[in-house]
Amino acid sequence: MVINKPVPFNFLHGNMVQVNPLDGEAYPFPCQGRWDYVEAVTPVVAGTTTLVNFTGGAQHGGGSCQFAITYDWPPPIDKRRWKTIYTIIGGCPVSSNSGNLPSLGQQPQYAGREDADHCGNDGGDFCIRQFDVPIPKNLRNGNATFAWTWFNNMGNREMYMNCAPISISGGTDNEAYFEKLPSLFVANIPGECSMRHEMGVFNIPNPGVYGRHQLVYFRFGHFSTDHSRYASHSFSYQTVYPWFTRRIFFIFLAS
Hints:
The chain is mainly β. It has one helix spanning 176-180; strands spanning 2-5, 42-45, 49-55, 63-70, 83-89, 106-107, 113-114, 131-134, 142-152, 160-169, 211-213, 217-219, 222-224.
């Protein structure tokens, strides 16, 4: 899988971004080592959302995703300089019961990458989902790099990462809020921890304040299974357990 919105570096030209996981060699952290060709800079407005959509033919039953930004250039190898703004536990970029979707074949508009049916929303089954990711209102204005990372549900324990150039407006003139955000979680690459093969959907530790869970959507201490109500859902994990145990403890945030 790769993101197609926001438009990643090297999407259609140069040393193109690939569907492969990070491996520390041909596809290093961060960003597969690919940020030399800017296809487009996506404008985002702090306090609103930005659309994230995907292309690809091997969805591995979804999994867990994070969305992060950095202001450093070039994109830093220090994971502490990548700050998480949103986390999705399970159901990203497809539902956990979807497996690998039937391919629609190679798509010329995506430089021959395979694709599958798209849901057109964030909650469909047996289709590739898309997500409106909230952009915190207190982020610093200016150029930044947006990252999507993915820990797949089925198959080898891997980490995927794509990066896209963005321009933030409507925010602040300092990085005080940015510096308080949790660092991006990194695993399954050389020098980092590795997950057990049987873990399935992974509960990302220290996911931050904003995000969603494939079973329950959170907002200010309330929960719902209504997909339309997740715009600013807050959650926090007291501890992290493998998904298959179902032993998940939540701290409900008071409004």
